[in-house]
Write a structure and sequence with these properties.
Elements (H helix, E strand, L loop, with lengths): L3 E12 L8 E15 L4 E5 L13 H13 L6 E7 L9 H16 L6 H12 L3 H8 L2 E6 L4 E6 L5 E8 L5 H6 L7 H20 L5 H4 L6 H4 L6 H7 L7 E4 L6 E6 L5 H14 L4 E6 L7 E6 L7 H5 L6
Parallel strand pairs: 3-4
Antiparallel strand pairs: 1-2, 1-11, 2-4, 2-5, 5-6, 7-9, 7-10, 8-9
Helix pairs in contact: 1-2, 2-3, 2-4, 3-4
Bound molecules: L-homoserine.
The site of L-homoserine has 13 residues, from helix 4 and helix 5.
Length: 324
Amino acid sequence: MNNRRVIVKVPASTANLGPGFDTLGMALSLYAWIEMSAAETTTFRLYGDQMQGIPTDKSNLLYQVAQLVFEEAGVSIPELDIAMYSDIPLTRGLGSSASAIVGALAAANGLIGSPLPDHKLFQLATKLEGHPDNVGASLFGGIVVSAWDGERADYVRLEPHAKLETLVAIPAFQLSTEKARHALPSQISMADAVFNVGRSSLLVAALASGELGLIRHAMRDRLHQPYRAPLIPGMSAILEHAADYGALGAALSGAGPTLIAFVDADSKDKPQLEQFLLATLKQEGIEAETMWLKPSAEGPVITVEDAASPAPGLMERIKGEVVR
Ligand code: HSE
């Protein structure tokens, strides 16, 4: 029997960054942890609020993803012991499902000696998620620019600017990606397409060259945010005015409902920006939690151990790192 135990720490992510719908993503300093080893019988230990309602049989996403890796690598490990804890809120637009997919891919690959290269894991993750933006960010860390044609995903990773920080406002309600995608039109005008090509290109160039002052103009979008705004009361006002309160720019995080502001880490305006976001949502009757998050420079951090060696439980192991 396979004699390894693998622990993977995987970051959350924000997708789109405004105009880069299904294309741009950035990893964030909010994490999930997955522990995996071969077992006699499949068992799950799922900890924390984010794991409620997650299946604990072989229909579990982590199990399914792991089996895909084994199949791809031509090995058989039908029974697994899987533990998971996540600080990443579910269905809020912070890439929780992408983190689970990437974490499970990395854990299963690590368990069998990492035969699959990252590029292959990216292809598998993109296919599973249906778009490359969140999975690319969780897999490679930093800012990831990606494109997928349904067959092949390509990407370039950018190092986030050292001064870049983010403020997320996470509304108390959930919004499924499916519902938020359903709100989108099937066709858009040439003028809106050109608008977005311009903004998205400008944003990538600004992030790559460190011209943070351009972000507020580059983060504008006509492809998805205007259509999703009715689902998130307060969103339009926040996107329009966040820069007046000191943000470098603001966007809907992924499919929402979380809103994300990019901020200069040294800005003195951070408290007033946080207040503006919370007050604007509150005016609409929406309670929200704010978090200051840094870009996460790394993708999954993998620890491989001898399964026979004594080990603390997952929660004991990560207790100094969890935030919730
Ligand atoms: N690009 C995706 C969307 C991210 O906006 O629908 C959410 O998973």
